[in-house]
Amino acid sequence: MKTFTQHHDIHFERLGEEQEVAVIRLTRGAKRNALNDRLILALRDLFENMPEGVRSAVIAGEGPHFCAGLDLSELKERDAGQGLHHSRMWHAALERVQYGPVPVIAALQGAVVGGGLELASACHIRVADASAFYALPEGSRGIFVGGGGAVRIPKLIGAARMTDMMLTGRVYNAQDGERIGLAQYLVPEGAAFDKALELAVRVAQNAPLTNYALMHALPRIAEQPADQGLFTEAMMAAIAQSAPEAKTRLNDFLEGRAAKVRKQD
Q1: 126: which residues sit within 8 A by CB, 6+ positions away?
Q2: Engineered SS bond to 21: which of 16, 100, 151, 166, CB 3.0-4.6 Å?
Q3: Higher model confidence: residue 199 or residue 75?
Q4: Which of 62, 24, 57 has its CA nearest to residue 40?
Q5: Looking at residue 185, what is its pLDDT?
Q6: What is the pLDDT of residues 34-68, one digit of tens each?
Q7: What are the catalytic residues?
Q8: Which of 87, 88, 69, 58 is closest to 28 using CA atoms?
Q9: Domains along the chain with CATH numbers
Q10: How far is CA 33 from the centre of its chain?
Q11: Element (H, E) at 125
Q12: Greater confidence, 202 or 71?
């Protein structure tokens, strides 16, 4: 079963046997899915009002590109204060992706550039196909990242690599992007969405509290000093294992009703 709606340059539908996976597709294909404020606000609204029963999400792009970045045709002349508030609006929207209600898998193909890479970096898992390429052209255009990229992208690839990308205009292909950490999965051209959906279905089967801990607690633990991180981990572990669903799953494993971990090809 599936349901779908169109909402400000975004196509939203629910897939899966219990409609547990939300698929959010950028639908500005003629603009290579370049981001404008309306689209960013629509993303924010979707994640703030995710329907009941959705347990994971896929973000994808219509056509041959995921997202070619900021729609420069809508770039307005702003004073410093206006620019600050505009950037903070993007921060709030993409924070709803990263710290929202469900894990998000990005299906990447073609251009993953500028703001598109900022959006991808706010997702929890990135699946790229062989056509994907990554760049941060803001440096050559006299601007700076403003959608959270300065915080999120160095956590994926390191500050030195991001600096190089912005200073020199370096473009990473799909293979090198996966090697340095811009994507966790690399699949043949045209297969990114199917793989992302497969992962989203699998993620939706996890205990919701465990998924919540991975989205909200783990990145914060990574930023804490070791002693604080260990204490936060202990509290989160205690909360997660106290959930009735966790007790059921552990009993299923102990009584042989759950699959064991096996080597994969």
Answers
A1: 105, 106, 108, 120, 182, 183, 184, 185
A2: 16
A3: 199
A4: 24
A5: 98
A6: 999 999 999 999 999 999 999 999 999 999 999 99
A7: 118, 138
A8: 69
A9: 3-204 (3.90.226.10), 208-254 (1.10.12.10)
A10: 16
A11: strand 125-129
A12: 202
